[in-house]
């Protein structure tokens, strides 16, 4: 499916991206999408896809800040900036990765945030994987939907509420993930605005599905097939939804609710279990 003409956003959204200088899938497999033997990454193509994502975000009015990763050759997944931290105002609650294959990324992210004027916090004894597992939604972004189970420990939730407290009284909503393919919440839940989101219900247990429906957010479902194309792992800038190539069904759904789908190829990053949203972090 070809890309749809963009609608330039009037509100500037600042987004962090990490250049995929050392991105590869050859050393390990820490999710069901990774297969180092039969699905290695084409690094040249991955760089081209990353550049297209960056250019597309900028075309629709986003402001991209690039963190270089040339000094991080041991951490190929550092390209997935979504996992760096959860940001509220000028404070970044840093990730503490479950798998040792990613734990070293934290120090690089910490250095970037502090060099760019953010206050950092976050525990190192409880697993938590940044905005990959914690997304702001709800009226005036008063809800932090936090995925728990595969990668993030539920014990991180009260500390998130404490450390990111800005006086607004936001609520942390724990969301239990049950499908190993959707190991972070951002591959199954995509806020489009503060009161509207795409989601794949089957990624969550029944109690979580019930709870998410009662947090004042209109939830627009996608099918299991569409979720498998990473349709919920999208970058939203204004009314534009930038995502991996998917079905015409998703395009119609997005257009029906007043948004503009823009499709790009993220095939090389899907080999590592991520797509357009995984490569970005709103800051």
From TrEMBL:
Gene3D superfamilies reported for this sequence: L-arginine/glycine Amidinotransferase, Chain A (3.75.10.10)
SUPFAM superfamilies: Pentein
Tree of life domain: Eukaryota
A GO MF term: arginine deiminase activity
GO BP terms in the entry: L-arginine deiminase pathway
A Pfam match: DDAH_eukar
PANTHER family xrefs: ARGININE DEIMINASE
Protein's recorded name: Amidinotransferase
């Amino acid at each position: 499916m070809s890309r749809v003409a963009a609608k330039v956003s009037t509100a500037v959204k600042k987004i962090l991206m990490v250049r995929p200088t050392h991105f590869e899938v050859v050393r390990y497999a820490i999710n069901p999408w990774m297969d180092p033997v039969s699905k290695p990454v084409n690094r040249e193509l991955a760089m081209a896809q990353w550049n297209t994502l960056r250019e597309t975000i900028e075309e629709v009015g986003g402001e991209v800040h690039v963190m270089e990763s040339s000094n991080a050759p041991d951490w190929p997944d550092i390209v997935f900036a979504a996992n760096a931290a959860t940001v509220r105002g000028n404070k970044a609650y840093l990730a503490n990765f479950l798998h040792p294959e990613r734990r070293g990324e934290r120090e690089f992210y910490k250095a970037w945030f502090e060099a760019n004027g953010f206050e950092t916090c976050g525990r190192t004894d409880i697993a938590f994987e940044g905005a990959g597992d914690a997304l702001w939604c709800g009226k005036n972004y008063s809800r932090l939907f936090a995925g728990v189970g595969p990668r993030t420990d539920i014990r991180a939730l009260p500390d998130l509420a404490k450390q990111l407290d800005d006086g607004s009284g936001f609520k942390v909503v724990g969301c239990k993930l049950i499908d190993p393919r959707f190991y972070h919440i951002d591959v199954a839940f995509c806020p489009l605005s503060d009161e509207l989101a795409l989601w794949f219900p089957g990624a969550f247990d029944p109690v979580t599905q019930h709870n998410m429906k009662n947090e004042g957010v209109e939830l627009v479902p996608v099918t299991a097939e569409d979720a498998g194309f990473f349709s919920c792992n999208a970058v939203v800038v204004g009314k534009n939804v930038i995502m991996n190539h998917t079905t015409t069904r998703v395009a119609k759904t997005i257009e029906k609710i007043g948004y503009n789908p823009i499709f790009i190829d993220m095939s090389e990053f899907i080999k590592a279990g991520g797509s357009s949203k995984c490569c970005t972090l709103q800051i």
